[in-house]
Design a protein that fits this description.
255 residues; 2 domains; Tetracycline Repressor, domain 2; mainly alpha
Length: 255
């Protein structure tokens, strides 16, 4: 039988490519290092050392060589456990995000999503590099998927369709990302803080503000001068109010 080579090659790539390696590294609980690992070295230790470097110096400072040196192993010893830096980053995210919050079963959807969103923002503040590192679309590990599952479960009984639930979840997640990014402190590899951005942008607008009248006006009126947490509170109120309108429409009795 003649085999269509163009059909076989994508299938082979899917089973051996970066996605397959990510799934194997994150989900295969029985996975063992190849070529005889030295005792005491495992994926959890490698991820922990990498997280310590990222917390102190930023994600750009993390490399297989730096992590190996911190642990007292050769770089090749790490490669027996993880294929490369992309898989190391996946393990860092999975370890740093932690477990999602336990939401009381009797909590209504709005309060539950508010608690979920605040817990996620707190995780990003605990590891400031985590927000930027986790933004890319990628294979997620068990903990990250539990975060998603916990949020989606809170939409049960709202009357939203599966598609609406997904879009509402993405809207909530986007607000958490945006509000948290502005409240993160400055640090190595993390860009400027919200306060530093305001100071620098005001300086720019003093000389070039004629082309940005609306931005200049809101900044002069005190916009962007929120303390940590205020921006998230406002963002959550806006997105949850919007979801609430849709929920009310879906659960209203038929006339």
């Amino acid at each position: 039988m003649k085999v269509n080579k163009r059909t076989v090659e994508p299938a082979r790539a899917a089973s051996t490519g970066p996605q397959a390696r990510a799934v194997a590294a994150l989900w295969d609980e029985k996975r063992r290092a190849t070529r005889g690992p030295r005792p005491g070295l495992d994926v959890a230790a490698i991820a922990g050392a990498a997280i310590a470097i990222a917390d102190a110096e930023g994600i750009e400072a993390v490399s297989m060589q730096r992590v190996a040196a911190r642990l007292g192993y050769t770089t090749m010893a790490l490669y027996r456990h993880l294929p490369g830096k992309p898989e190391l980053l996946d393990q860092m995210i999975e370890a740093a995000v932690g477990e999602p919050p336990v939401i009381a079963a009797d909590l209504e959807w709005r309060a539950g999503l508010d608690a979920w969103a605040r817990a996620l923002s707190a995780a990003f503040h605990h590891h400031p590099w985590l927000l930027g590192a986790s933004m890319r679309l990628r294979i997620m590990g068990p903990r990250e998927l539990r975060w998603m599952d916990r949020a989606l479960a809170l939409f049960a009984g709202t009357g939203l369709s599966a598609a609406e639930t997904h879009q509402a979840f993405l809207a909530l997640l986007g607000q958490v990302h945006s509000a948290t990014r502005f409240s993160l402190p400055p640090g190595a590899g993390r860009g400027v803080s919200g306060e530093q951005w305001v100071t620098a942008t005001r300086s720019v607008l003093r000389e070039h503000g004629e082309g940005y009248p609306a931005l200049r006006a809101v900044m002069a009126a005190g916009a962007f001068q929120t303390t940590r947490g205020d921006g998230l509170t406002f963002a959550l109120r806006c997105v949850l109010d919007g979801i609430g309108v849709l929920v009310a429409q879906r659960t209203a009795p038929e006339r």
